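User: I need a structural model of Amino acid permease from Arthrobacter ramosus for a docking pre-check later this week. Nothing fancy, just the predicted structure tokens so I can convert them on my end. Input:
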Amino acid sequence: MKIPSGASTGGGLGRGLRSRTALLLAFAFAVMADPVSSVAYAIEAALRALNGDLALLVPTMVLVVAIVALVIVNYRQLVARYPRGGGAPAAVGEAFGDGWSFIPIGALVVDFVLTIAISVSAGSSAVIAYFPALAPWRLLLGLGLVVLVGAATWFGHLGRLVFAAMTVAFIVVSIVVLLYGLGAAPKPLGTITGAPLHPPVLAVVLAFPVAVAMATGVEAATSAVAQLGQLDNDGKRRFGQLTLWLTLAIVGTITLGLALEAAQLHVGIPPEDSTQIAELARLAAPAPVFAAFQLVTALLLLSAASSGFQAGPGLLKALARHINRNGETVGILPPALDRTNRHHTPYWGVAVFIVLAGGVTAIAGGNDQELVLFYAVAVFLSFLGGLVSMALLARKERQPGFLVLNTAGALVVAFTLVANLSRGFPIVSLAAALAIAGLLYRAWTKAGRPRGIRNAAAEAEIV
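Assistant: Understood. Predicted structure tokens for Amino acid permease:
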């Protein structure tokens, strides 16, 4: 049912506004589950890259939040340009041709696999931080959660309201922990060093790319607007852009708040059976609040994993049943990936992602910190494609302001991507994304190059 934009009576107008507000909050808090959940591991990843130097943690996280802000400001344009969804693949397809859109699509596939793997691994870490006796079973716990979350998706997608509730619960309990932390006495915990491996500025520059995995999920709003069938294009633009601003405000506030209190209370690199934010909550808050914090953290991370199980198989399904501009179904992937059960779940796609995410989780030993760099590469490859494309389109359309903004964003994203790739192993994410893009391009060519494939990311949200 279409949400009313107004009515002839004051009561009708009030109900319409309330309905729109409720829809916006449900949509926004569900979409931001990914970036909010990344707080659970991104701050710790930055501190590890700083070799435990707490004095540089806050400047590093300020830089990370600034980069997230730059990406969000640019991605507001993607929402404005593609209110029916599409994100980076749509922009790349328009700027360079449909065939090039497979690069960000390949990056998104890797992103969804890593979203599941890192979220269940971080969820396992949250559980182990409260029940240290489970530490020897970390890998089995992580693999079990992959199967459990995937199986839950198999029997029907968790609703957006569930994701929104988990996000709100984490935000509320995090604020409570931060408030308690204001009156807590400092107590050195974990590994803290006062002698960084590099001069301060260089140390920050080398460390911040590790934590930019926090930007993951920013692209979700650009495609998820396709779900808002109740709204016209203007309404989708407003909802998408407001969601991006809310994401920046909430993620930035919680991130900087936790980083500041970690530095103030001297919470360093945690032991193997805990996490930095768990140690902070344990020190700052009473036992019941600490227990609640670990619970909502684990649930939010599992919700983020579930979102990967929705988005990934949905994208495969869209590619298997792509509808071209003539209304003809021209799939480029095997038809089995288009099959759904009575709960409308593409079960073969779910099975594919269970296997892939389970394999990645096993390779990482169920350790979320081992996956952070790989995750950042996949996310920023998609960002780079979107921003370069927007810069090219701004140049063609003679929009100098947008050209400067998009170019600045692309340069910062490119630097971050190169910095992460220079660490060596994360190049695996780049290779995987390009390999998937190549395979999809070949399948697209064999299918006769159906037009409009750039919109697959949007189709994935509505099929």
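Before docking, keep this in mind: Residues 1-10 have pLDDT under 50 and may be disordered.
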